[in-house]
Structure formats: structure tokens, C-alpha cells
Amino acid sequence: MNQIGTNQTLEVLRKIDTGYVLEGDILLHHNETDKELEAEQSVEVFVYQDKKGQTVATTQLPAIQIDTYGWAEVVEVLPHLGVFVNIGTTKEILVSKDDLPLFIDVWPIVGDELYVSLGKDRKGRLLALPATEGIFERMFESAPDDLLNDTVSGRIYRTDREGAVCITEEGYRGFIHHTERKGEPRLGEQVEGRVIEVKHDGTLNVSLRPLKQHSMGEDADEILTLLEENNGVMPFSDKSDPEEIRETFNISKAAFKRALGKLMKERKIEQRDGKTYLISE
User: Fold this and answer.
1) What is the pTM of this model?
2) Separation CA 158–CA 260 (nearest Å)
3) d(CA 229, CA 226)
4) What are the start-end ranges of the H helices in the chain?
5) Which among 23, 19, 55, 54 has a CA at the least distance from the CA of 37?
6) Taking residues 117-131, what's their average pLDDT?
């Protein structure tokens, strides 16, 4: 018996008007392959069920299969069912509302991404199953100690009343306490936040709240002071190395760029050739 939801190598039994019959009486439609096949030839396919419940195949091979995880983009939201995701084939797979947050306000929207594997419902139909915390724990990288105040970008994979959890682009686990966000982020949403703590276990606490205005003002004042003490020029710009910025100003590159932007908007500085100059009044 062929396992739906997996990539398999099957033999072509015969060619028919609508496509090919593969071993196990699985139909491979012409529009599901760009190959011309012959009887007794082997072909690698993804096996699934169509809307009629018939077992069919496609030569579009997804990375996401039974017990194999990957990121899948949300392509449709149906409140009475759940959300459909694109796993890389013409068959879009349902993430059941039973596997989504209780409140639809924090469901993913079209364009968000979920980290899923394939499974089956009670009737044997394919479902996309969001990864658990245990699955993500295998993926996490330990964050370095010097990320404090840095900006990180990540994808939300869990959300509840206490807070939300994301995995950053670097593979770090980031927890966002409910007090550190203006609104609850959606499952699957890409967010950008500020690191407010690097914990001993290598995970992060992240804030989605913007930096307070006075913090940017303090950084800008420090830049102005350095310029005034160095004849109106410093060998730093928004292209400078993050480590050099941190060693000199004790702030992240993101905070440094915000302060530069504030000063340029106020027409107090300008940048040329990798350096920053004080504008004389």
C-alpha cells in the first residue's frame, strides 16, 4: 500500500488518455508532469489524494512530507476550516482550525509562513501539522552574549496569553512577553524586535516596542560629542562594522543608525566616503 504524503519511486504500468497509471493503480495526470514516460519506466513522484479521495501523484516533489518539516506559505484562510498552505505542489494542504489558536485574530493571514509536517486526519486525508516546541528545540542555536539591544527578525511559531515565541533568522529562540508588544502577533507572522535580554541558556527575550525617543536622543548626543571632540569628523557611518560601533558607543548598529538618521534629518551631520561630518552652522 502506497503511503500518501511521501515522495516515492514508482513504476509506470501504462499510458492512458489522461496521463499514466503507476504501480498501485495511482494516476499521474499529464498536467502533473512535464516528462514523457514509457511503460516499465521508474519515476519519482509525490503521492496524495485529490478532492474525490482518489490516490494520485505529481512529479512536483515537496520538501515537506510525512514526518519531514519545512516552512509553508499560507495561501487561503477559511474560518470554518483553518488555513491552506503551499507545500510546493499543486495540492494545497489544510492546517485544521483545531491546530490553530483559539482566537482567529491571531491566525496567520495570506503570506505568513508556518513550520509544518504532513499527517492524516481520521479519514486518512492529508493535513499540515504545525511543529511543536520540541521540534523547534532541535533547531535552536545558542545566542551570543553581545546581542543586547540588537534588532532581530523572526517568525512567530507560538502565541498565547503569556506571550509569543519566535525563531529568529539566525536560529535563536526569542520570547516576547505580553508587556513587550502593542498587540498580540499572529502565528506565522514575521516580526522585528529588540533584544532586551540574552539568557544563560542562549535564548532571547525580545521587545516589539520601539525604542523610546529619549534613548535615540542620548545616542545622538554621544555621536555629536565625539564629533565635536574630533574636529567635526569621525571614521564611522551607517556602513561601519557592528563590533567597532559597539566598542566605541556601546550600542548596536541598529541603534547607531537610528541616531544617525535623527541627526541627518535635523541637518546636523552628513556622511561621505564612509565617514560622518559635523555640519557647521
Assistant:
1) 0.72
2) 35
3) 5
4) 133-137, 213-229, 242-249, 253-265
5) 19
6) 92
